[in-house]
Amino acid sequence: MSVSVSASTSDATPGLSASSLLLMALACGLCAGGNYFNQPLLHSIAGHFSVSESAAATSVTLAQVAYAGGLLLLAPLGDKLQRRGLAVSLMLLAAVGQALCGFSQNLPMFLLGTLLAGLFSVAAQVLVPMAAALAQPGQSGRAVGWVMSGLLLGILLARSVAGMVSGAWGWQAVYQGASLVMAVVALWLWKALPASRNPVPVSYGQVLSSMWSLLRSQPGLRQRTLVSALAFASVSVLFSTMALQLSSGPLGLGDGQIGLIGLAGAAGALVATQAGRLVDKGLGRVSCAIGALALLLSWPMLWVGGSHLGWFVLGMVVIDLGLQCLNITNQATVAQLMPVARGRMNAVYMTGYFTGAAAGSALGTLAWRINGWQGACALGVALALMAALETFRMRKSHGLQQPMAAH
To answer: How many CB atoms lie within 10 A of CB 129?
Structure first.
């Protein structure tokens, strides 16, 4: 099929209230954050199932792979189906996956729950382009920034909440409570959001086949996806190894303490709405440059922080700030490239983004096995450097180009 930009690219119900944006942000935070509960809990999960910490750490990579698969196969349905119903259905299914994790009796059952929760948590990536579609003209970057702030805070706070809940009631209570809250918020979304549908709906086969065409024909989509994938790969090296270092290294922290460190990274999410505003003002390159430099500067801090808690906390703040600047700017820019294919453009971008995360998690675990914290930091800074080089190679603008026909 060929995808073209027509005059009727806006949704029938323009504009979103502040309360609706906040609810969408909350839903995105719950969906995305659920994939990060396991990161500060690896030691406890391994002990509960009597397996090695490396075996438990496979759940980190699995969550990212499942999310990437959902982005590729499920998120593009936002260009075909009624978005509110799709988002609510996916969120309820993700809640089922979280419940399965919370009541699992063995590691395979826990991994199955992780797989389901990750696959269906892409409800968040139906809501993000929905926010852009329903926003008033000239406000899409702001809308994406607000919703993504919730998503990013969910990711960052998930580790802290998981650690604290685990310390008080055990790690399984984290998943049991999350499944209940997600179900309630999903039903709230159904009542609060307007119906929203792509004005040019296409078949599922056309949706999937056109995604490759979009990737080939949109240079802005390709470059921004690559930059964000490399950046998230770098940060995922940290996510997959920090609990192992902080619990077994010279700091010897417990689940609750490791979770509290995740609160430091929440400062990075505060830049999300500002990054979206910069895109609306045509200053996205400034935000990207800040993000790339922050990513690079964080890793020396984290390397020293492996044995000095203050440096580790500072490194967490800086690395999360860097990732959020890059991701919000790139995602908001991609949302503006081709409104009629917004769901598919976002799906391509986020599939690449979380593929990078999955690769970073897997490589980070391998680097840890080979050379511990020093190996993880060396890998992290190498990926950050690649992301920075690609950031500064991006052209000042990418003209809107029509995708080639997809068959």
So the answer is: 31
pLDDT per residue over 225-235, tens digit each? 999 999 999 99
DSSP classification of residue 202 = -
CB–CB of 247/43 below 8 Å?
yes
Please give the DSSP secondary-structure letter assigned to residue 403.
Answer: P
Q: What's the residue count for the chain? A: 407
Query: What is the distance between the alpha carbons of residues 407 and 405, in angstroms, rounded to a whole number?
Result: 6
What the block records as the tokens of 280 is 């609306």
201, 82 Cβ separation under 8 angstroms: no
- Within 10 angstroms of residue 248's Cβ, the number of other Cβ atoms is 14
- In whole angstroms, give the CA distance from residue 20 to residue 18: 5
- DSSP annotation of 4: -
Q: Mean pLDDT for the chain?
A: 82
95-to-64, 108, 123, 347 alpha-carbon distances in Å:
17, 18, 11, 21
CA distances 140 to 128, 148, 268, Å, are 10, 12, 21
No. of H helices and E strands in the chain?
A: 16, 0
The structure's pTM equals 0.70
Amino acid at 167: G
Q: Give the mean model confidence (pLDDT) for residues 128-142.
A: 72
Q: Which residues contact 283 (CB under 8 A, 6 or more apart)?
A: none
Integer Cα distance of 197 and 70 in angstroms:
20
Residue 86 confidence (pLDDT)? 92
The Cα-based distances of 263 to 177, 223, 236, 243 in angstroms read 20, 31, 17, 14
- Within a 10 A sphere around the Cβ of 293, how many other Cβ atoms? 17
Looking at residue 404, what is its pLDDT?
37
